[in-house]
Structures are given as structure tokens and as C-alpha cells.
Amino acid sequence: MGALSHIRVLDLSRVLAGPWCAQNLADLGADVIKVERPGAGDDTRHWGPPFVKDSQGNDTAETAYFICINRNKRSITVDISKPEGQEIIRELAKESDVVIENYKVGDLAKYGLDYESLKKVKSDLIYCSITGFGQNGPYAHRPGYDFIIQGMGGFMSVTGEADDFEGASPQKAGVAIADIFTGMYASTAILAAVVHRDKTGQGQYIDMALLDTQIAVMANVSSAYLCSDKVPRRWGNASPIIVPYQTFPTSDGWIIVAVGNDGQFKHFVTAGGEAHLAENPLYINNPLRVENRKSLIPLLEIMTRRKTKAQWISLLEAANVPCGPINNFEEVFDNEQVKARGVQIEVPHPTAGVMKLVASPMRLSETPVEVRMAPPTLGQHTEEILRERLNLSPQAINELQTKGIT
């Protein structure tokens, strides 16, 4: 039994931030019902290739994007634009503890499915709205896209090669960090609201914004600006205050070298057969290495290209120089530590046969995370949920399907 096995969640969200939040709750044991549009479903069901392959190696209809954020959920299709569909959502909300949605500000009020409407049928309801810019302010009605938020929230201003590097430009992250962090914060906020409800009997409304989150997770970078009024700049993979503390090319890939003191620098260059660099008056201590990085780094890159990535990791670990590889994803999942931790899992799936997923990183000793269900096919559990939650007869369920409500 998961820690949240007593919690019911109605997930009206699509794409990434909301589904990521709901999946966290589902992994912890919550019963999550994912509401999707009949015939189309969540947008991410169509964001392929790549698609999951079946046992014969043929593409299924399941996209890699959708399956990464929707395990442990049940899928029901409901057309909320129709009164009958709205009534189904209200009845499901009445039986739920939490509602999660990421519609544009004001959209669900048109259907009577906003917080003010639903708390009339469930007074202690916890209702979490996720939008790009929040429920108030001049940008509230703008759509919020992760890429745009990474730019507006300052992340891209400090990500990418420095301006004096050829071809330098601001860069986004390789994954939608504003969406994912917002989903994580939303999960935490919902858990806090559950604790508060259990103590007081009061539900509440949670207003989550991607822009707020993106600025918050800039952490020391945001704080540095507020403390100094100096605008942070891009440094690429280098540190502005420690040299060498960056990526280096090898003969077959890239490594990270994080030299934190003069002794580690000496061990680094000695391992590479260039011990004289540690005695060079231009590089003898960190302040001088920072001052003379433009002449030092090319020399170090010549040195690191002489050996393979694996050779460097072995040499530097033996010399107690902090380092690590930059792995592609074949190397990630082949890593002995990743295998030991069981990060890749396999679950049965109705169309794929066996589906490969990434395990939740949450490890709880008494209430362990469990993959109870593979990501659902579209509407896979519609009849089951209508019978179980709303006590509808087969005839009533068939009528809803005939009308295109479900």
C-alpha cells in the first residue's frame, strides 16, 4: 500500500507539468483518473516519433513522450464541452480529494468546473491550477510554453557558451525544466494541502505558475543578482571563479573535470603527462589560472584529447581528482550504478506487450513506490470508472458512448 493509497486524484491536465505532478502522486499510491478528450486524448499521445514498439518490433500508437508521464493512472474519455460530460466531471470530483488542471485562466469556469463551482459539491476539495503565468497579473491570460518561460525566467541568459566564444548564444535546457519543476512544486503543495485538510477539514486552491517556478529554481543565480544588482552572464560549462572546472574533450567523448584546489590541479596535469603546467608561474594557483584561462584551457584540451574517456576517468579517480563522464543514453542505461539501482524497469502493456520505463527515484522504506499500471491506452478504463465511481448501468454507459460524451 502506497503512502497515498487513500487519496483520489482527478487529473484534468495535459502535456507535461500537470501530468508530471499527477504521476508523482500516483507513484506514491494515489488513485489517479486521467481525463482525456474522446478520440484524441492528451496532446502528447501524438508527439511522436519515437513510438513504443511491440514484441515484433512494430510501432504502436503509444509515444515515448506520453508514457514517461502517465504510468499508474487510469484513463477515462469525457467531452467536457457538453453538459453530460460536465456532470460526469462534477460527480467524479465529488468522489475525489484532489483536482489538477492546466487550462487557460477562466476556461473551466465556462463549464462550471472551476474551483468555486466544484467546491460546492466537495467542500474540502484540493484544487490545483497550473498555468504559465498564474491566475493574476497582466500576463495571466497568456498561454505558457516551457521554452518561452526558460527565456523569460532568466535561465537561458546564463545557459550557453560565454559571449566571447565563437558561435555563442543563449541555450535552453535539453528537457522542459520549467514544466517539470512546476510539476514537482505542485506535488509538494498538494501534499501540504492534504496534511492541512486532514488536520482541519479545509480544502484549498493552489495557484502554480511556470514563470514563478522558473525564477525560483534559479536559486543562487537569482539571489546573486538581488544581492549585488549585477546581471549574471553565461559561462557555458566553465566556472567563473574556479579553473579548470569544466568539460574537456577526450579522444572518444567528453569528461567533466572539477578541480577545486591547487593540489588537484597538479594531480590532473601530472596524470596527463604535463606536470610542468602546475609549476608554470601563470597557472600556479587558482586566481592566476582564472586570470590566464584563455591560454591554459587550450593546453589542457590538447592534453585531454590524447586519452579516451574511460582512461581519463580511471586515472583521475585514482588521483582523487573530481571527475565524471558525459554519457549518452546508451551509456547511461548501461552504467553499473544505474543497473544496480534498478532505474530501468519493464511493465506489461496491452499493445506493446512489455514496455520499458524509467523508475521513480523516490525510495521509501515503509511505503515503497510501486508501478501498479502501465501508462493507459486512450479511454482504457472509461467503463470501469463509470461503473465503479458513478454506479452507471451498462445501458447508461453505452448511451454516453453513442452520444460521443465518453
UniProtKB/TrEMBL annotation:
Q: Which UniProt keywords apply?
A: Transferase
- Its Gene Ontology molecular function terms? formyl-CoA transferase activity
Q: Which organism is it from?
A: Polynucleobacter duraquae
Taxonomic lineage: Bacteria, Pseudomonadati, Pseudomonadota, Betaproteobacteria, Burkholderiales
Recorded hits in InterPro entries, A to Z, give: CoA-transferase_III_domain (IPR050483), CoA-Trfase_fam_III (IPR003673), CoA-Trfase_III_dom3_sf (IPR044855), CoA-Trfase_III_dom_1_sf (IPR023606)
Coiled-coil stretches noted in the UniProt entry, renumbered to this chain: none
State whether keyword Magnesium applies: no
This one is known as Acyl-CoA transferases/carnitine dehydratase
Q: Which EC number applies?
A: 2.8.3.16
